[in-house]
Amino acid sequence: MATAAIAGDDSRLPYRPVETPxxxxxxxxLRFHEEVALNAEPPVSLLDHAITPIDFFFIRNNGExxxxxxxQDWQLAIDGEVxxxxxxxxxxxxxxxxxxxxxxxxxxxxNGRSQLEPATDGLQWGLGAVGCAHxxxxxxxxxxxxxxxxxxxxxxxxxxxxxxxxxxxKEALSRGLPIVxxxxxxxxxxxxxxxxxxxxxxxGPLRIVAPGYPGSAWQKWLDRISLRPQEHDGEKMRxxxxxxxxxxxxxxxxxxxxxxxxxxxxxxxxxxxxPAEGFAAKRGERFKVSGFAWSGAVPLxxxxxxxxxxxxxxxxPLQPGEGGxxxxxFEAEVTAERAGPIVVMARARDAAGNSQPLEPVxxxxxxxxNPVQRVGGTVIA
Length: 381
Prior knowledge:
By secondary structure, the protein is mainly β. The protein contains five helices and 23 strands. About 10% of the residues lie in helices and about 30% in strands.
């Protein structure tokens, strides 16, 4: 299906996660979660692309899918700790500022949460809440500098018209960025995705693109940016939402919000997209293991493959990526040596020496889960 169909008028879409024929057409192959908000993810086999097609990109919502009208009607306000408050149309942004395109991985902070034991609260994602896309827009820094950033500004606060389901007076999500990240050259106000107009399902007409940060920081349906003199305290910026404990917290221990800090970097990670779980190979034959590896602020350094459950590891080359925030493909051939069960694994590491843990590391909200992926199969004699 052409992605243009997604970029067009999808105003008939419901916000409740009932898999209607229209949703099936817009997002073929995705699994829709049994949640009140609309959330869906692809199987990892559909993520075997250097640039994830919009059709296969995961959907994440905290509340209702808002009505957005047309791009011509949309406005973005800039206020708060600025010298010159502004109101922009999408056309005005395109005319006033340089248009740039950045390739970056977008990953939900809760991706892989279903692997944790005991289970935590939150959407029980598999491994599909991630994708890599071309994002087109204007630099957030250019827009803020045009408004005149006051020295008192330390954080941005982002606002959108999506509301909590059943509570139309309350925002569903209002996240922000430290001012250093807001002014970084890779941070965008985006209006395009993979060469198309940014689809409504993915935050169109405007969204934040904050490479290396969790998807919660990539505010969708952006209609206001308010610069703050302190860390933003919008919806799902407080308590333990999208935060990790500063000191370890075990299952059942009481949660002190003072022990939690906002997630500002995603960990190094890899994804085996082929072979699929349950694969079969003939003994003595070679088969290909392939997938992608990525990291957040710390650059990706390498990836290793194991075909014996982690007893032995072999470094494999990383193919070039489209910039420092894109994922990078790896491919390796493995020999099916012994008949019986086989487990293939991939383990990525970053330039600071951080590697994926062999087992999930539990935290109370199930965020930033990046253990080594295991793909099981059978070698046939």
